[in-house]
Amino acid sequence: MIEPAERLSIRLTINGRVVEREVSARRSLADFLREDLGLTGTHVGCEHGVCGACTVFVDGKSARSCLLFAVQLDGATVTTIEGLTPPEGLSPLQQAFCAAHAMQCGFCTPGMVVAATELLEKNPSPSTEEIREALGGQLCMCTGYVNIVRAVTEAAAARRGHAGVAE
Amino acid sequence: MKPAPFRYARPRSLADAVGLLASAGDEVKILAGGQSLVPMLNLRLARPSVLIDLNGVPGLDQITPGSDGGLAIGALARHAALASSASVMERAPLLAEAARHVGHPAIRHRGTLGGSLAHADPAAELPAALVALGAELVLRSRRGARAIQASEFFLGLMTTALVPGEILLEIRVARQAQGWGFAEVARRAGDFALAGVVALVDRAAGSSRRCEFARLVGFGVGDRPVRFTAAEEILTSGDPSAALSRAAAAAAEACDPPDDVHASAEYRRHLVAVLTEQAVSQALERLDGARPA
Amino acid sequence: MSEPAGAGHWVGAALPLKEDVRLVAGRGRFIDDLGRHGQLHAAFLRSPHAHARIVSVDTRAAAALPGVAAVLTGAEAARLSGPIRPLIPTTAAVSDYCLAVDRARYVGEPVAAVAAADRATAEDALEMIRVEYDPLPAVVDPEEALKPGATLLYPELGTNVVWHDTLTYGDVDGAMARADGLLRERFTIQRYASTPLETFGLIAAHDAGTDSFEFWTNDQRPGLTISILAASLGVPQSRIRLSCPDIGGGFGNKRRPAYLLICALLSRKAGRPVKWIEDRIENLTALMHACNGVIDVELGYRADGTLLALSVRDVTDEGKNLVTPSQHNLIKLGNIANGYRIPAIRYEAWSVLTTKCPSGANRGIGKPFMCFAIERSMALLARRLDLDPAELRLRNYVTADEMPYTTPPGAQYDSGDYPATLRRALGSFDYPGWRAEQARARREGRLLGIGIATSVEPAGTNLASYELLTGRRSVSGSAEAAMVRMEPDGQVRASIGDPSSGQGYETVIAQIVADELGLAPDAVAVARGFDSATTPWLYLSGNYSNKFSVTDVGAIVGAARRVADKLRRLAAHRLEIDPGDLELRDGAAVVRGSPDRRLTYPELARTAYADVLGLPPGEEPGLEARFAYQNPLAAPVDAQRRVRSQLVFSNAAHCCLVEVNPRTGVVKLLKYLVAHDCGREMNPLIVEGMVHGSTVHGIGAALLEEFRYDAQGQLLTSTFLDYLKPTATDVPAIEVERLEHPSPFTPLGAKGVGEGGAIPGPAAVANAVEDALTPFGVTIRSLPITPERVWRWMTPGAA
Fold it and tell me: Nearest residue on chain B to A75, judged by CA atoms?
């Protein structure tokens, strides 16, 4: 039987790369990403799961990295904003965010991009209401959400346009 | 806000999990979804010495339709899975609806049914839904398994019938009544409800009675889910739609809601009356086929 | 306003923002993304009592915990540092240090601090510090706090009232006596804050070799902060370096020299850099709240609704704020007329200390409450006189042809057409259409409500207004410094002493410089953030009071024009013509009328930097200029105690539509439109974003946000579960209509836009809900408007 431990070794895939580390049991995934791996794109805004700034993909689904301990992620696959950004330039969704000025201070933006990415994968033609609901767990203190909704709407339309789907 | 130190274990089997639970001493917590527990750890409101992570035990998250028309749901089933499962939507749509109201997508991807039940926040939707559904909960410890009715499981504010060494393993619900309703008032979408009511109504095939079965349970209006038996009797003893406001008044009278930063007891009591009418109306419409199942 | 030095067309363009490119990729560099080699992490032990004597502090066990490098108590802080100087001169002379010394005066006040290997260990150590408290009565209600016999936060002051004064402009009593009617109302407002998503944070590093300090922080007022730090640490300012990285929202909240001091002292003790990142509980509990308070309005009017006199009695709850007390009062006084012609005005105000979180310059600095009181009063007056609320306002606005118009307290409205703004809002909103719809809905039992609120929004600041508090002038005006430098490759670098916190300075400054120098904005790199070693800055530098368009722009334009002039001089010298014959465009100095006679910037830069013998006689090498600017509108307080506390005025009209659930009291915002005039829009994308975001702040204050304290001074809403911020599902799209009446008094005609909708938003929503509840005859006098309060208003006997 395993013994509970204060430090454990974990091996997980982050943005496509395998990472092996020894970590303290109480190290959050958010702090692990930011401090141990230097992936500072994921931000910490509340540490109680409400603001959404820390949202990343875990095994393909959005999750609050402030509410996960790194030790839980042994064998898991994690994608952060860094993994959603192409090596050159920006993704179409990110370009849509820029075109619509869907950010001001930028602190909520990585989590917002994760949530929007997930929405568009599930629902390629979201209504305004569906967009607001999908992003309802991502707080933004700067934009009032208007341009963010615009950006996601336009990104969805552009995606459909590229896919040749008549609207 | 960083947690107090703890030791962590991720058992690979149920036997290991219950064994660890038994040997870990008093200050042990189970980690399922973590969406309620980890904030408490971060705030140092909970300070277990040992955290046992159940996410590594295979098979605890299954949603299994039974040949009796019901469902066996593993305690680690995620809210998102419940909300989108075809079997749940078919056999216990009230449960799917309740799961949809929990937080936001990222929370629902990790939060679990068992975790919500064990945490027993009186303002949570799922405990009330399971009490209404007459669910049976299977608990497991090193001594073996036992079953308990959902209505017996919630003992008080954030207090359940789980004894030290026990894990909530499975939730069994029978196929639910055809008429169901769900109504809540929350400050913002996804927040804990200020008050909420779930309703189930049914009648026997070919019966002339409008409603022979009723279950009404409130959440956010007591220290645990509150079943409104007097209101149920009113609904089953005549024409339920004529008796709506009486039933609503009975439900409001039957609860002793909390006073807190978000709402007073008086307002919550008022909401119970309003939401009872709404939930029962929805349920009757569904019973009559006038609303999507 | 003068024409740009170069052939420019970039100012006014909706240019996508340069900084957005890195932010959307998660490549921003915020304070928690930075680190110094060997750094420790700090945590602060905070008082659990609202008011208590600190009897003893025992840190021995904490200091012995493995991983702990240094511990600091208040007593030590008082020995190792000097008291923190207030930003605003007050008559209250007390010594406050970076940690509580003999008394804690609000829940969350830092009492001791630990620096350890990581934050978790530091927090473990905090739990081992033993503090003996002797609790004292909490002081929670400002009206109780100002009474004789109230428990005092500072017994040596003899009072909790930091300031009390009455300022009278015109014959208020006479006008009230002659009025056809008087409207008297009392309004209260709750504590709330803009709560930027990134919390406050810093790294402090003491260098023993030079006895100097380096700081990295998201502080919005670096100029001021450096001064305070130097004074408290007992080192000359020249031995302090302070840098700001990307800032994740400020809204006035990020300003707490005490925190930097604590970590500076820890760093000196430990001999290593110390990093501290505020967590959300600390942020909500202890960083900064906008003042709550009580305003009594008395409005004298003629029967036709013409306003004759306004008398305001304002009790402002500052919490434990000895750094910027009375700031809310002065700013409220400056905005009191809210765009209306009111010949006689009296303002009696108290600035009161209570045992709560310190107040501060949260977005709007008191103007939201002042506007709430005035706009609510206008709504009530319209009701009383049976006048359409729009009509009542139209009768009282200062009009465009009266501008510049000076209000009785001395504020000068520089430009704007307030009636046109309101008419545009009502027209675009389809006010008559929604009134008709409201009537239809009422017949069906649905409660729709339409709310109007208008406001002026000042920009820039003039600290000379502080003379109203003490009778002496020590700080005054406002100023900013900027630097523009053309590099040897002909591209440009610019920087300014005001660190952006989401306002797009890197882009709009590039646009301004591009116009002055005849370049594309891509050729202008604007430095991120702030670095006191390299950024031009002044004591008055920083991000506050909407000053960018009024002050910062002057500094940028000034610096850019110096470079432009030099480019012309260098080209004129080489081409042997008069500098006036040259245009700056497309990256070159071009002879007017002979486009092929030109010298490119790289060529000119070569002369300036490399081939310096080619410089005109007496000309310095290089192509760099600094410029510090103050807007000439700032002037001292005059003999009648009038002053321009802020300098130029934007204006806006808000219209919103709500539906109230008659059974639950839940309010839903269905439509929200803002007609807005901030003068010349330098970048419409930035402007519109500011209007959206600031309006949602106003909506949050109206419907959701409240820092609630119990009678013992305990904060009941200290997490985001209880302190409710608006989400995407809580607010509709904010529609924006724009008008443009440039200011004659700013360098480019632009005015402020950063506070925007935060000012009239609360009033607009309150007016809408009250309108929806017309069948119930409700008067809304306080915020936030929660479902329960709405239900009580609708339910006889439930109040």
Answer: B56
